[in-house]
Amino acid sequence: MKIGMFTSGYQRNPLEDIFKDAKRFGYDYIELWGGRPHAFAPDLKAGEINEIKRMVDKYQIPVIGYTPEHNAYPYNFMIGSELQRQDAVNYLKLSMDMGKEMGADFTLMSPANAGYLATSEEIWKRLIKTMRELTEYAEKIQHKIVLEALTPFESNVCKSANDLADIFKEVNSPWLLGMCDVVPPFLQHESIMAYFDKLGEKMYHMHIIDSDGNSDTHVLPGEGVLPLQEMLQELKEIGYEGTATLELVTAYINEPRFYARRAINNIRNLMK
């Protein structure tokens, strides 16, 4: 299993810190958060992608996943007018272009909250319409989309393995794949390992982190209440050899290098 560094916690640090730390701490790859100041897709398109490529070459650390910010302002394809939805779709198409250009294997997407007044029928119609548009573009440029389920604190759209499986029935493409962030199923008393059974070959990627059991807060591995050691043993026994990003987000933004180092050291100890 390859272990990756997530980078949103480094947004107050220079870009080079990300690659330097991933290299010296022993991460296998980077999952690059697509927000300013480091990797906002329009900035990359304007020429700043060359700095990403330079860092990849300099430190010999690949960017395997590109995760554009689209769960909040100003992009969320699940809420607002049709003009706003299409603007978010165009942004994600550009993000896929940039992900492919930087050499990423996939661009990660997660349907955000559709608003309190949206009905289940309206949510599903908008979700499938959007994912079809994005998947058609992914097929055209031959770049994978990895779709993530979120917690109920974050979204009322796609929150479980069943939700992902239902989407894949409607939008059937080898370029649209799924993943498991371990916090959403753990919070909802859903089986983490059921993602592998329900998604089968579509189960492509993981976010591994710990949980406080009460919120969507992402806690350092081994420092929450999730039985990570036993989960890692299960992943080894089923032969999971894919990618697993340690998704530290902004809870540790004050000292990202301290916690990025501690996160991978904790995971290594749990995997022994």
TrEMBL record:
It holds the Pfam family AP_endonuc_2. This is Protein FrlC. It comes from Clostridium amylolyticum. Residues 19-268 form the Xylose isomerase-like TIM barrel domain. InterPro entries: IolE/XylAMocC-like, Xyl_isomerase-like_sf, Xyl_isomerase-like_TIM-brl.
